[in-house]
Every structure is written in C-alpha cells, then in structure tokens.
Amino acid sequence: MSSPAWELQKAVYRALIADTALAALLGGARIYDDVPRGAPFPYVTFGPSTTRDWSTGTDSGTEHVFTLRAWSKEKGEMEVHGLMHAIRTALHGAALTLAGHRLVNLRHETSDTLRNADGETYQGIARFRAVTEPDP
User: Fold this and answer.
1) At what angle do helices 4-18 and 78-91 cross, to 10 degrees?
2) Partners of 129 in beta bridges
3) Number of folded domains in the chain?
4) Of 20, 91, 102, 103, which has the maximum CB count within 10 A?
5) pLDDT exceeds 90 at position 94
6) C-alpha span between 50 and 29 (Å, rounded)
7) Rounded Cα distance, 130 and 34, in Å
8) 13: domain CATH number?
9) How much is the CA Rg of the chain, to the nearest whole Å?
10) Does residue 125 come out as left (phi exceeding 0), alpha (psi in the -120 to 50 range) or beta?
11) Which of the four pLDDT bands, split at 50, 70 and 90, describes residue 128?
C-alpha cells in the first residue's frame, strides 16, 4: 500500500492546479514541491508536514497536519492574502480522491503572513489538518 501522506499531497496538488481562481492569481500552475531555479513569483510550495497514528481499537487511520506556503514579491501583503484565500477556498472541506486511502476530512486550521528577512518577499503560511483511512 502507498503512503497516505504522499497520496494526500498528490491529491492536494491536483486540487490546487485545477482551481481556476488560484491559477489566475498565480499566472499558471505554479505549485511546487521543489521550486525550479528562477521560477517567477508568485508561487505556492508544499511546506512541512506531520503524520500521526489516528487508529482506533478497530480501525486504522492517519492524521496529517501539512503546510502550504504562498510566496510573493509584490509590495505589501495584498497578493499573499489573495493567494491564501484561494488556497483555503480550494481545499477546506474538499472531497479529494486518494489512491488506496479514503479522506475522512480536510480542514483549514490557521494562516499567517509575514515579510521575509530580505525585506522584499512576502510569505503566507496555511496549515491544514486531514484524516485518512486505508481503503477497505
């Protein structure tokens, strides 16, 4: 059986690249696990993720807490806030399909925005929580 965390990441990626509102804000499908050298801003990256056993006495399950980051070089936080809103709208409560696993729920937990130390790059950080179970 494949990793539930990897299957969840692939499903999240598919949902994000299919979202026309997010694609319009990004200027295309700029969603990366590993950012290509010289990639134009803005873009979205996968950040840290944590998985925990969420099994009961009778059923197997996995809890996932994962982060998506939006990156912008625009002045101020407006572009980052727009990207974060589009990401939340695309994923919160989404019914994603995972190979070999079933998504029980997917919820947005929190978002933060900040200016990076370079003084020019803004970052939005969105944290999500999901629970998966293996397909029977």
Assistant:
1) 120
2) 65, 107
3) 1
4) 91
5) yes
6) 25
7) 22
8) 3.30.2000.30
9) 16
10) beta
11) very high
104, two tokens: 């029980």
The CA-based angle 42-48-53, given to 5 degrees, is 145
Two structure tokens written together for 49 = 């993720």
- 54-63, 74-83, 112-121: range with lowest mean pLDDT: 54-63
Which has the closest alpha carbon to 112: 127, 90, 133?
127
Residue 43 parent element (H or E): strand 43-53
Q: Are strands 122-134 and 62-72 parallel, antiparallel or unpaired?
A: antiparallel
CA 57 distance to own-chain centroid? 30
Q: How far is CA 111 from the centre of its chain?
A: 11
Q: Which helix (H) or strand (E) holds 2?
A: none
